[in-house]
Design a protein that fits this description.
Two copies of one chain form a homodimer.
Chain A (H helix, E strand, L loop, with lengths): L5 H19 L8 H11 L6 H12 L8 H19 L8 E2 L2 E2 L1 H5 L1 H19 L10 H15 L4 H11 L6 H26 L4 H28 L2 H4 L5 H4 L5 H5 L1 H18 L8 H12 L3
Antiparallel strand pairs in A: 1-2
Helix pairs in contact in A: 1-4, 2-6, 3-4, 3-9, 3-15, 4-6, 7-9, 8-9, 9-10, 10-14, 14-15
């Protein structure tokens, strides 16, 4: 099954998502223009679009096409981007570079960066509930999808994980707490992305259950690889300084278990992710290839 | 029509909203507990609950009862509280006191305060889309209400207004820009509150149109009185220092036109607000009394 051309697939999907983001990105002249500029700056900073691609691939895996799902794909990317803007703030991770460019607060100042994050998060819900855009999905399904995504993005998911991550900085951490951080900070939104893709694509309960399991495994792989790249990665490829986790005494998998053990965990999780897709046919090939890609990525 | 006992009404409504907030306030032990504590600290800091009360009064005015609407009332208060937490941050208004108590970031630190705001904003959408709580409103109506509220809270509403407010600090401002700030920063969410109340309460299109007009007038009154109180108010009653707007060179109505002219505008807006309610019967008495109350408040 090595015939699937992931590189072309990713390029095609990214172009579709970028075009949709561009189309629906809010813009208004007037006294509040800088917040629109800041949102655009961060949203169009050349992200990999992993979450919206995974979301669409979840729908594809259960046989749905993606027409009508793009507002959700864009909303998920808005939520991800808001989290990056707020994470980069001086009071949080205090990062100056993101994707090779100055972070939002470096360009627009802290106040506008905070507001741009707030604006993107809120705009995600505008997009998901915009009935003109999501016409042919039932209101019940839209509501349930928004519910899943809001839970994954909030205190029981991403916000909770980021809180634990920030608070554990510089402190000794056990594997249980590290697992909590990874599952919440990174796993929850990736899981919710593929789950809502399968759900809005009208997958069966069992299909959605397997997609959820796949999503969490993928999220954990993603985070561990991120941590490994912070130790071993290439600064130019990464677009940010290497070793910043260690400098901030961040809780990471390689810091706790070493890089070799971290790589073993990744292999285990990859097998786990692929096993969740066993009952799916070739339409799940993008999800299978994405898992491979996340393991092998160098940026 | 002076028989309506607003004081008792407000006390009763506040108790109902406070009980609902307490019941649905998220709480979780574990590594992310501080963000839950910070959300609770700010949400239960003794707010006046103006927005959720206005929301419920909008539903009451069109003859609906409030059963099933409380998740929305709580969500609106979560959105309002998140905006206060973020507004108070050092990078924004840099306020140490709110409702007579230290602001969220003073107690929990900036990082957790940012995350508590993010958490409350996201939780508002969890509450509004929680199908176990909002069982008997149609999914179509819930979706449309969430759409209205997200738009009013986001860059086309509150976030946009706050951006303009922050950016105009210390700069000369014209009345058009001041009007933009007031309508977006304060007016939009108050308007959306009473509008969605009327909408979810199944008001007619004309009723909802009048409630919207009422809501914007009320929002503008609210903001102008706020600005007047910052000039003339009592520090003990207000729970925060007086004169802080002038110290920060904030754009305010009294600063631009003087206190007398500001009071004239309030009278004009009050008449305007009351005229929107002319076609409503005695069930709109709370809304009429609320407008009076907002004009006469001293804190």
């Amino acid at each position: 099954m090595k015939t699937f051309d992931l590189k072309s697939y990713l390029k095609k999907q990214r172009a579709i998502i970028d075009a949709a983001l561009k189309k629906w990105l809010p813009m208004e002249d007037g006294p509040s223009k800088p917040v629109f500029d800041a949102m655009q700056y961060s949203l169009m900073a050349g992200g990999k679009r992993v979450r919206p691609i995974i979301f669409l691939a979840g729908a594809e895996a259960v046989g749905a096409d993606m027409a009508g799902l793009l507002p959700f794909a864009c909303a998920i990317e808005c939520i991800h981007t808001y989290s990056l803007i707020h994470d980069d703030l001086p009071a949080m991770d205090n990062d100056d570079l993101r994707r090779g460019r100055p972070t939002c607060h470096k360009v627009f100042g802290e106040a506008v960066a905070i507001l741009a994050g707030d604006g993107l998060l809120t705009y995600a819900f505008e997009l998901m509930t915009n009935q003109a855009l999501i016409g042919h999905i039932s209101s019940e399904s839209v509501l349930r999808a928004v519910s899943i995504i809001s839970k994954a993005a909030g205190v029981f998911g991403m916000v909770g994980g980021q809180t634990a991550d920030i608070l554990m900085e510089g402190r000794d951490i056990d594997s249980k707490t590290l697992d909590f951080i990874h599952r919440h900070k990174t796993g929850a939104l990736i899981q919710a992305s593929v789950e809502t893709g399968g759900f809005l694509g009208k997958g069966t309960q069992e299909e959605i259950r397997q997609l959820k399991r796949y999503g969490m495994a993928l999220g954990l792989i993603f985070q561990i690889i991120d941590d490994i790249l912070d130790v071993e990665g290439d600064k130019t490829l990464m677009g940010k300084p290497i070793g910043s986790d260690a400098k901030k005494k961040k809780a990471t998998y390689p810091a706790l278990f070493g890089v070799d053990e971290a790589r073993h965990s990744v292999v285990f999780l990859l097998n786990n992710a692929l096993s969740c897709l066993e009952a799916f046919d070739e339409k799940a090939e993008p999800l299978r290839a994405m898992a491979q890609y996340v393991v092998e990525r160098d940026r």
